[in-house]
User: Fold these one by one.
Assistant:
Number 1:
Amino acid sequence: MSLNVAQRTAVETLKGPLLVLAGAGTGKTRVVTYRIANLIRHGIQPSRILAVTFTNKAAKEMQQRIGALLKQTAAAKSKPEVSTFHSLCVRILRRHITKLGYPQKFAIYDRGDQESVARQVLKEIKVQDAALKPAELLAKISTWKSAGITADNIHQSIWSAKDHLASLAYGRYQNALKTVGAVDFDDLLLVTEELFGKFPDVLKSESARFDHLLVDEYQDTNMSQYRIVKGLALPHRNICVVGDDDQAIYAWRGADVKHILSFQKDWTDAKIVRLEENYRSTQPIIHWANTLIAFNKQRHGKKLVSPNDGDRPVILQCKDGETEARTVVARIKERIEKATVQPRDIAVLFRTNDQPRVFEMELRNAKIPYILIGGQSFFDRKEVRDVLAYLKVVNRPQDDISLLRVINTPPRGIGQTAVQRLTEVSVTEKKPIWENLKPKEYAAALHDTSDDSSFALQTSLSPSVVSFRQLIEEQQRILQRDFSVENLKNFIAEIQYEKEINRHYAEESERSERWNSVGEVLNAAAEYIKESQEKSRKAALWEFLDNTSLAGPDFTSGKPETAKGANAVTLMTLHAAKGLEFSEVYMVGLEEGILPHHRSVKASEEDESAVDEERRLCYVGITRAKRLLTVSLALNRLKWGKMRPTVPSRFLYEITGQTASPNYWRAIAGEPPQKNNAVR
């Protein structure tokens, strides 16, 4: 196939620093593989070419494409080295890590191993869980390592009391790993950087192995990756980096867009090639993307164009989140029934993991198969299943499966041995576990066959068991009599479920997301109660639980690999959608606090780059669409069981040029349904 002018320029520029700014859908992978093949055709030995990318999937795809092209090249007697950053560093460390005092056959610790080391280190410096949990320590260390910060220079990055404690533990953690000849995943980069810094001869020998270096997705490099790449390329200066600063969306995991923005400062003789011809989307979609991203001031100037005409994107303005989900799914169903599109060609993209719940419900109701990628199904999340299990026990205490799930969640002193014994007795006596939770029966069950009489004595009068049973009985009286949002909210407080979330998740953002999922259970209840009232029926706990029961396997979540070949609508986060494309895309929740996310809005008070990244995320979402793009917003949204007004996303104003106040959008939403749901 032929190349356009810009693509050909990138393929034929074979010497010196080269920056290829590859806009969305402009044929980046094709340019990379053709350029490598062209280097080989011009006499460069394949083994002297190193291509580095971020994922095993991308590396494998690049290898396959290059292999197909090299079949046509007689000179190709070897293969280029195509690798992820981490696998490249593993090979370098296997060759040289003994210089740093590690064994050549060093171990790479997984998460479980890391937590064991972190727990031991915190114990040594007498830091309690309440002050700093092992998971919190590992999260902070990972953040520091991604920024290229070692234990020796950590003092520059201490901002809080927890940072101070973590900094004290960081050095001990590293020493503990080194003592047993191990590194963690982040160390693969950081230790390689340390190796190059302390032993210039190692850097010289590694860089001498190649004459050409190519880096894919350069906008996603963190500090260590940036320094490693620069060190390897300096001797020969034949470095080609490919990426798009407008699609830099991973700052939260250490990536720094400044690396691609400052490429010309690092390499003053660099040539820049802009790939701006988009082969994926229609021109109306591309116009939206160009208009939005132009509001980011710190970027390389480029403007995508498309030869494809098509319909203008549509904005759906809905009165609330439930109406948004119904409207989007109704449109999807209509297009599928008209055979305009297959389910596999449609994606619903959202910013946060708690958004899909209402869309899952509506897709189930419409009998439209879907696959959730980039996260669990709302109904499969631990916190949702836990809360629903509690409600099932309240509804029917004889439900042993649900009872066993929550009896010690959060921990209330009912140990595994006690639970196991209760289960055994219930099986033997052929009666539910609940019946053995009365103080007298509980004591008898434990004392019956226990060899340790002191254990039986300690547990026979367990106040935890008595308290748990009283809790359930009290909530039975309340929720079975009056199933309301307020009572359900009080119930969640009574079971102290927030303790369970705090116990499992160290990062504040993760806790917040998990707690929001609990809030979504309240929202689901509020919707059900409202529908019951509209039908003049009394809301009932048992009926709510029936309504939330999961449908069959055709409508459950799946991993990315299960999506291949599946004729199902794709639900996924905007982050997970990067690199993919769909004929029709629905971007939902275009509201302040969702997109842009409230954390970024708050952070932008000190650093406007936080909202810039959210804008890039929105840009990524827009450019996933090939033929049809629909964005939606709710002017009211349930939050913890209460309907609250929202503010339309600033990105909508930027795209449309609309300068009216949010009341403008509200006025439109108040018009008849046939007018308020589609404004072009």
Number 2:
Amino acid sequence: MAATHYLPPMPATLGVAGDFLKRELAPFQGRLNVMLRCMLTSAIVIVGSMTLEVPELALSLLVVFYVTQSNVVLTRLVGLMFMVGSTLGIGLSILLLKFTFDYSLLRIVIASLLFFGSVYLLRVLKIGVVFFIVAIIVIYVQSFVDRIDQADLLIRAVLWVWVAVNYPIALALVVNTLLLPAEPQLQLKAEIHRQLAALQTRLTQLIDGTANAAPITLASVQQGALTLQKLLRFATMRDPHYREHQALQLACVATVSRLYRVASELPDTLAGASAARLAILRELHTNVTALDEAVTSGKSYRYVGAAAPEERSAADLVPALAELQRALHAYADLVASGAEPGKPSAREPMLAPDAWTNPAYMRFSLKTLLAVLVCYVFYNAVDWQGIHTIMLTCVIVALPSLGASTQRALLRLAGAVVGSALALFMVVFVVPHLDDIVGLLLMTLPVVAFAAWISAGSERIGYAGIQLMFTFSLALLERFGPTTNLTEIRDRMVGILLGVGVATFVQMSFWREGEGDVLRQKLATMLRAIAAHLSASRADADRRAEFPYAQRQLQAWAVLADCEATLSRVALEPGWQETEQTQLTLRAQTVLAQGREIMLAGDALRNTLVAQAGSWSPPTIDAVRSTWEQALVELNRYADELAASPPDARAPRRVEFAARAAEPAQLADMPLIAAAEHLARQVAGLPDWSVAASVKTPASQAVGS
């Protein structure tokens, strides 16, 4: 008997979908800027292509959306790679046609080899997007050969593709450089200001005794840390000053990220706060403001004020306040000393280390080529030229894993459906009333703006905006005049649906490249990284090595985010055995959540230990350190067993603090003991992970089932 699965009621499903769309479509800093740049460049491209009769307008608009990125550095980098890729792809296509125009079989064979090589390089090179463009152009040109039987017209059409791709890139670079430029240095300063302003608001709330500020979630902390790291990397590429002092800038970013994380741990109110505690709160607020002004103006930061002994004691009673003070003091001392805190890590290599030994790359290239050839034979066999997008779909949704491919396919389908619906509405109700270019812009630009707003979002929804715009423009803007042909809209949808179906079938039937094992390895790496971070924190708690601590914490957030992204793809992987997929997802969610809690519990224990280092009794400190060490041993053991194949990870043993203590604890030591026991509980909360282990449904998912 087939296993039954609980399906949430429709209102709950719609509510989840509504919350997802509300979250993904919400405005954030820089999103409006991206939308306006896309709109402006698209308007210029539409007018230019329609006036000068440059073909492939839909392709030109697609390039505009790809090239217009969140900042100038990314825009120039992507634009350069698109120019190189399109020029290389067009050159190879012309050479191919020159020698194989009259030999169809030879043309297909050589085109297949070029396509295979391009897809292989797409996987193994850091600049793989160049060869992604080459692969698309090589396969796209084959559809031209089937529609054009004269060599000179064919070459002309291929050269027009080069023009349609490259002149929008030049326009996009001009618009992004001269109009509404998004400089990464300014974006970095704005993000630092946002995080420090949130901390100032929380401190003001504690000083005034109010509780009206929005809470800072851990998701916001994690996203903020990743944003700072990315913007610093782009600012380093853009500005020689940032490049020269990259390590110091990294220390600043790590400090701000740490301050923002501590802001999420501050209590809503401090009832009956003493004068000493209010004084330290005001001092912290003044220094956060001074740090914000120093970053904005580019000046050196100096710690303002010096806490009296009683104020210092008042801060130590609240570990979060003590950590804020230590972080600000450490950064001020570093700036005053003029010393670099250590060089950043080396850059990643251009070529994957296992480029010539890992068979997965060749298998991926063969699967993608097979899907494209099946689609090519099909659409030629049925003589249905309107569905030539079937081949492009196979290339576009070809991503390294089943989950990533499924995510891209769903976004392509969603964007195509919305774009086709909008195009159908325009053809029926708007196009008959158009008579000039102004009317065309008034019809098109709102759709472009909507698509640009979506594409400027996260990777969970961004590609749907690009596909929406591309499908809409394919249906309405491919001719230099009004169109009333509804069959093109139908053909585009059929091509996309068939392409997604063929690509998914091939990916699932041959050398399935799921990320289940990859996710398990990444979770083990995450747990090891957290254990290493907490182990170093335990060792340097007395020395107060604040910057290594803050930088390790920043790296831990990045590892957590990588695991979350992998888990979101694994959850979308199609599989024949749904029960195993559900178990994998639930276990991974539990490990990921516990990993985050373990890191926070370890940080809390370190802060408690350091905040009142002189007030804890030596026996209690020894017992706490022993508990800490044993918990980390269990955590490392669990990570090693999780990484084994097959996995056989037993839940960590609960380390009892009482067994480590040499004598009964004093009442004053209870906060430290509570922090140590909390860390031990979180480590013990990791689930059993083995082939035979059962999975407990999290409480949040059990409700209502």
Number 3:
Amino acid sequence: MRIAKTTPEVGQATSAAARKDALLRHWNNYELRQSYIPSRHSSFLCRALSGYNNVLARGFILVIVAVFALRLPFLNQAIQGDDVFYLTGARHAQIEPLHPKNVEFPLSGKMVSMQGHTHPPFNVWYLGLILLLVGDVREPAFHLAYIPFSLMAALSCYALARRWTPRPLAATMLFIATPAFVINGTSLEADLPLLGLWMASMACFISASEQRSPGRLAGAMILMALAAMDAYQSVLLLPICGLYLWCFSNRWAPAWAALLTTPLIITLYQAFERMTTKAVPLAALAGNFQKYALQTLHNKMFNAAALTIHLGASVSSFTLGFFVSRIALPFLLGVTLLAFCIWTMRRSEPERRFLAGWILIYFTAALVLFFAGSARYLLPLAAPLAILLSRLPYPRILTWAVAANLVVSLALASANYQHWEAYRSIAKEFESQTKDKRVWVNNDWLRHYFEANGALPILESQSVQPGEIVVSSKLGYPVPFATGGGTRVAMREWQVKPSLPFQLIGLDAHSGYSTVEKGFESFGLVVEKPVDIVTAEIIVEKKASLSYVNMGAPESESQIAGGFYHIEDGRWRWMSGKGTVLLKREPNQTEIALSYALPDILPGKNIELFVDGQLVHQVTLKGPGPGQIKAHLPPFTTPQISVSVTIDKVFSPPNDQRNLGLIVQSIRLLQN
């Protein structure tokens, strides 16, 4: 093998250990390191350094052992978070392998199309393949199948760290100990596959660019294509890899052309879906952003603050100061770190400029692309951050940082494990009590295990009939539902309380780890209060006792059979496309009166009134405003009647997920 040039200190070293020590002492010298890059026709440098390959092998083995040590204890992790949505796509992949996202699924009480999901289908395809091989959702098998992505990410980080730091193993261990890597590595969401593919494509692309290897470049392009099919933010590989080529003055044309891989694959995927399903996933996603007001300035500001806190929290382990301050200190550290990266970009050393630029480019894009401020969004920044920190002239602090990060990460991951395990245990315990009853689950996070036992997801304003059971979570955004004229009676209540005081999300945790909607703290420390409260209620039949339902009165709840939302302004309720109430009828009551209001924003005009399923009145409203509709009742048959009101069109405001049709103030029966 030919080495381009060397230095007297390294060249005069007589032993393998001396050569290795000399190389590490001079590693920060860019000119020296460049001299060890082999020519395009030579083999890898390390083979020429006697004994150095053994060091590399030990490093790779230690990284692999560390990854398995983190993952194996969590193989039986319960289905958590958004796993249930990805598993929905995985099941549909058994039906439509080419279009696993061409399916609707319940989300927060509404049926939505998976075409507008925030990720392309790679993760769904991968889950679908595991499901095909295993036959059912078995947690250990699924989590075991996800370990290769952790290995890809960690080994790629080690390969990159060997280029840019004299302490590559410490940098890699700091990367592995990152809380988001430990915690979200036990999830079936798309974040871990993205991290593995992102890091592997970066390592392969940089190696190909250094050695001008067409084979490695082809491998990098394949990995980039897979990353593009896993997450739209993979398009950021273009500017980051472009920055690498610019920093190191690499003019190899094929490498520059390879930068177009991710945007090209994303474009081809959109075109394929448009031609075969008539839907454009990115257009559907943009529609969801607009419909749910996810990209408003308010959300963006909260997202920016939360991401800055998470960035700072990733380095606050140097002092363990986050136990004292989980907002102010991480925020200041995050701002300081960004300022340091901006300052570093002005330095002439290429590798530091590249690592700092990697952080700045991705973080800036995260402020624009994301809206929930979750810590997992910053996973692709963990590697350059760990490598930069490992270059500081304080090696002992690195050991402390790795140990502190591991303690916190494992504590948070264990508390997270217990949180989701509680849901699995509740579903298993409740199964024996509900074999002969219909059960509705009023929480997306509870759905997987309850649906596996035969429960059904509840939809917004759905009518639950007497004798049926509803299981709800106070933490997980329960949707309103009607009781079909019955009364809700509590059956059982469970408090979800991990044994450790750490919380990623909770009723009183104020933690923004998963979403900024719950708070800004990097994680929660709550000792006494539960993470969540799960309740089971049975609907007990109750006879209608009122002939006059005032929508602003709390007692109207028991007579609403479906289609109405909660009380507003103490006087009225919104109705969806159809609302139903139960009324007590006396023999001398022959008319029904509906008091309503139609705002300007509502498109509906045609209103129909039904009594016990029989149409009794139909009217077309002339315009917006308050009004009253009266109609004659059918002949007296029973002392309880069902009254339904329908309107032909509904409206969903930008900041409201409800379908609004009409404002109803009261429904009453009138005597002669």
Number 4:
Amino acid sequence: MRTPPEMPTSSLHSWHDQLLASALILLAALPRLTYLNLAEFKIDEARHYQLAYQLLRGVWRWTGSTASIGFPKAPLLIYTLALPLKISRDPRVATGWLGLLAALATGAFYLILRRLLSKRAAFSAGLLLAFNPQAILYARKLFTADLLLPLTTFFLGAGLAFLSVPRERAGRYAAVATFAFALLLLTTFSPLLLLPALIWLYWERRSELTWRQLGIAAAAFIIPCLPYLLTVAPQLPSFLNQASAAGKSVLPPLPGWISSWLLGTSWPATLFTLKGLVVLLLVIFSLGGILFLFQRRDDRRIRFLGAWLVLTSLAALLFPFEIQFHYLIVLLPTLYVLPAAGVELACRRHNRLGWLATGLLLLVALWQGNIWVHTLQDVKQGVAGYGTPLGYWWSAAQQTRALVTEQEAEEALLLLPGTQPWDEKAAVLNALLAGTVHRLVDGHHTTVYPPHRAVLLVASEVLTANQTLTGTRAVATPLPASPWGEQYHYHLWEPASQGDSFADLQPASAKWASGSRLLGYQIRGNAAPGETVQVILGWESTSGPYQQDVHWFIHWLSQEGQTCGQVDDVGWPTSRWQPGDHIKMQFSLTIAPDAPPPPYILQVGQYTYPGLENIPIVDVAGNPAAAAVEFPLD
């Protein structure tokens, strides 16, 4: 027996709808706001955190971070993150803030869908969105894609409202929909894939809008974007030239990516598994949803939803840049309209069939939630590609900050395995320690001893490689640095013991025009042809940061002046020099197999980079005296 279908709400939502929307918000918040210590936190997240922190300190900006395509993004995410960082510097608070926005979007999606579908169908879609592992993952970072779900939901609601309101109010809602699209583009570039959907939106009401209304809608887009557009305008021509020259070399595997977003995890290798059964259910419901939507194609709201899904996917194929998987988050939440419409079709066929369909999608949602639970368990043990969870980073930063205060130190020195922008430990800890005086040191071959008390954070990876760390004492129990067994060790440097740190070096004296003075050197290893030796230099910075980059050169010479080996390295970047710093640097040098036997001569000098101009050694009057200093070796 067929029962009359439940009519979707057409005006204000009933208290039942408000209750169900609230339930969905709570369900969506549960995986997004718990275990934030296990949230993913990499270089991109650190950069966004740092920019938001700087914004709160008065460093205003009209651009955000740089996109993977090499062009600066708009700054909406940075502004959004500044709100929770105003309350707390804890990055877990900011991460939870984005998760809360995504949870609220889940409830809003249900209320939006209720304009088109019954409670059971809309609630089924909300459940799938609430427990989608991919959607959860992209609500637990400080990443531009994390803001897209709330904004696409806003754009969806504004677009459907624009298509539903009487003609006299169409202009107002056109401006709101265009403003929502502007907010998407002020976050990142992937929402450009929704441009065809926006055009379709206007096409549906093309005969009902006046030129004045179109002008207001255009202003709703241009005014929010204008500061950003004016800022990046000078860079745009050169970027477009480079982009057109590079072109797009590989078409993205869209069917697999779209199905992964719908499923919430990777596509199964075979359908003869539990995951395969879930896939089959979603495919069946989605096909039923397509049939139902096709039957209602006279409704321009349905045509808009279809345009969103179809035209956005086609735009991804035509997009002039390489498409990444996370770009397709702009398909959410609309992608879940398909299985929801499948439930609606079942409800309209028979009431029992509708309940069965709702129950099956509930089981799919619970399966997705179980996938997320297992994901968290894997992350706790360590997952390649996921990176170090947030809790490890924040504990290290908090411990460092506390020790600087407790030991009355003037700064923290972070001895890490690399200090380049692409070195994750350096990038993340540098961001999280914003506001605490600190310097980054490549601990593989450098140790800095400042003329004041300093706390040293030493990554376990550099302890075995670093042969220059002397004269300090441990001041705290080591902290775990990752799920893979790495640790952070904490040491205290006190200037009173400064002499001890250079006691193992052979005294030497030479002063360069760069403001650095050699105090000693040491050779470790078997100095013979074909062998590798360690050359340790101890020197003092007599002035502040030097205006040019400086590289050191170490030449291993025979008695006749023949070069038997050499190494060039930046050592300690000039931008981090401070007056009174004592620095020990370690260089690995391999002596040529065909080199003559010892004794040898050690030659040490400096040159500018990239200018490659020799920096002379100066005499007491500051006049150039030599190009390098040489030390006979036994």
